Fold these 2 entries.
Entry 1:
Amino acid sequence: GGTLVSAMRFMEGQPIHGNPDLTYIPFLYPPLYAWVVGSLGMIFPFGYTLARSVSTLCFGLATLAIGYGAWQARARWPLWIGLMGIFVGTWDNAGTFYDLIRVDSLTIALLGWALVLGAQKKMEIPAGILLAGAFMAKHNTAALGLPMLIGIDRIHGREAAIRFLLAAFVPAFMFLGYEEIVTGGQFLKWILGVPAAHTIKPVRLISGWDLQFHPFRLPNRGAQLELWDALPVTTSLGILLPFWFWKSEKRVYWTGASL
């Protein structure tokens, strides 16, 4: 409900990342999802149904990005259908976030299409713009910029890499400047300063490591390892498939992005 309140504040012209008060505490993510839901709320009935529909649609678009990427790599249809199915299978492992009123599905949709278009010839500018859009939804997606830049440089050449860099960096930089101005310098504090105070558990970087639910317990630890669920399988395929599908240049792009 908190993210829905952010969208409602956008509709009403109130700040999303300002000073907190007794009725509202800003979220730790950029505002693109709230902007999208709030804008649609000016046309359609505003509420949970609208916001969850946006998330579900974006999850579908992310799934299509996987199929399109495999099809562009000339994979046979059972394989790209299977890859899409494995991604859909991560729904439960990821905390069933994909249909909730959260930024996750929009972020994955934008990032997924940025990745698959970045591997295509003469599509580096749309890829950069989509990566900037993903950054405006969830700022940690900026980490994909470097492996994409290196990969595009290897696949398509230095000029294409520069075009990608400008297409991603200029909108993202303008977005940051705008948000800092309209929030009176509060924006970066909320998306960077506040999360910096959170405790980081490095073990959670291991895909498939579950701290509560699954039956593969490790000795003397209150944790389990999900050996066969969709999430670790998806991560493993993301790293291994580039060595199957693509010649050496595209292996650099996809392996770097997967890591």
Entry 2:
Amino acid sequence: PRLDMVAAIKNDMDKDGGNSDTVSISARFRRQIRKVMDCTTQQDTGVLHQEISLLLSLCKKMGGAAHAVAGLMIAAQACFMARENDKSAGYADKAIRQSRQLMDAHDPAGYPTWKSCVMIKAAVLVGKKKRRPAIALYEGLAHEAASRADAFMIMEGYRLSGHLYYELGQPGTAFENLLLALTGGSYLEQEVRRQSTFLHAARMALHLCKKTRGEDDGKILQERLQEWLGNDWASLLQAEGMDKATVRRKSTLFEFN
């Protein structure tokens, strides 16, 4: 018989739940997450906000700051998916503050939530073309990731901030950040580099190198890419869709100030 993946996922979310009145709060929490995410595709956002309120209420019943920030992160993600950007940013801001407190207390639950919500908040800002505040978030993310040896987020923080500098007409700074992104990504396994946004960072770095540096620097970069990606690095960067890595959206007049 054909496997119904949607049904399988829903059944997994519902496990330990059943219809019993003695359903545990943790099982109810899992089911409520599913309800919230199901609402992200509906036009009536009022239902989404009701389900989010129920989710946050369950988080309070579960107790503990880790559950509270987890609920806020899910709310931020759900609102972002539903294009409720102001609501998303509000939840993300709360989660960022509270997860930072967990990080300061050396709670391992803090950093994963913090970095996810920083990414959400920055994405909201980018959508509103508020590039400089988004750059500050992405660079802050990269710095924190460096202190935690999180190679992937080092790469993403500098890659995304580099692209925003490019859109602001600062190719030199953009190139420097893209090099930092590649350096961070170089600590990932090669197979990960070959199948991740490392390729986008590499494509953009080559593009900016031609604009801001000399031929010798270009050759050095190409040698590094061969080392990091393999002998077929050039063909990887020419794959379908890779040309979008260097697309530049227009900035507003005020963003150049």
